[in-house]
Amino acid sequence: MSHPTGIYLNAIANRRTIYNLDPTLPQNVSIQDIQAVVQSIIKNTPTALNSQENRAIILTGKTHKKVWDAVINSIPGENGKKRPTSARDEAFGCVVFFTEQNTVKKFQADYPAAADAFPVAASHTTGAAQINSWTALETMGLGCHLQHYNDAVRAALGELVPASWTVNSQLCFGNPVMQAGEKTFIDNPVNIYN
Ligand SMILES: Cc1cc2nc3c(=O)[nH]c(=O)nc-3n(C[C@H](O)[C@H](O)[C@H](O)COP(=O)(O)O)c2cc1C
């Protein structure tokens, strides 16, 4: 495998879910570095007809704690609170991914024959931005896990972001305390048909 491709494939293979985090950053990484990486990914991840509906913000410090407190308080009973409590207390921050819905609506109006395709494409491209970010953050030595407390996060953010931004996920990050466990794979060949 040629050199840059090997590096890229290793980064993809090394991206894992790591729940055990410490709320710090690796020594040589700043929150501005993370911002620059996510900014570049939001800019360069492709969208249908270059519609550019992907958005992201980074929560850390008091705002991260406040949003995750609201998520915890939105969950009845104790069992479901474990993961958001760890996100609040053990993650240094999180990237929240959004879709800007006015953009999606505009493309639906401009291309009525493909109207049904735009929300699907928006869902694909936010997924691409999320996994690109997850992979990139792990190459920086961060540990990450992906969460979907979307309604509670949207409610907690209030007017911090425009009303047209719908929440897709939260990528929680911090210093990894433990490496990811072993992962099993199905036999899933990519065949060539000639
Ligand atoms: C689209 C998608 C949604 C996921 N949603 C969640 C989630 O809501 N909560 C969670 O803890 N992990 C979530 N995960 C993490 C997966 O469970 C995890 O990626 C999978 O088990 C493979 O493990 P790995 O990330 O270590 O490779 C999600 C992953 C993907 C790709």
From TrEMBL:
Residues 12-174 form the Nitroreductase domain. One of its GO terms (cellular component) is cytoplasm. It is found in: Cytoplasm; Nucleus. Gene3D superfamilies: NADH Oxidase. Its cofactor is FMN. GO terms for biological process: cellular response to oxidative stress. The keyword Nucleus applies. Pfam families: Nitroreductase (PF00881). Its main location: cytoplasm. GO terms for molecular function: oxidoreductase activity. The keyword Transmembrane does not apply. Keywords: Cytoplasm, Nucleus, Oxidoreductase. Belongs to the nitroreductase family. This is Type II nitroreductase.
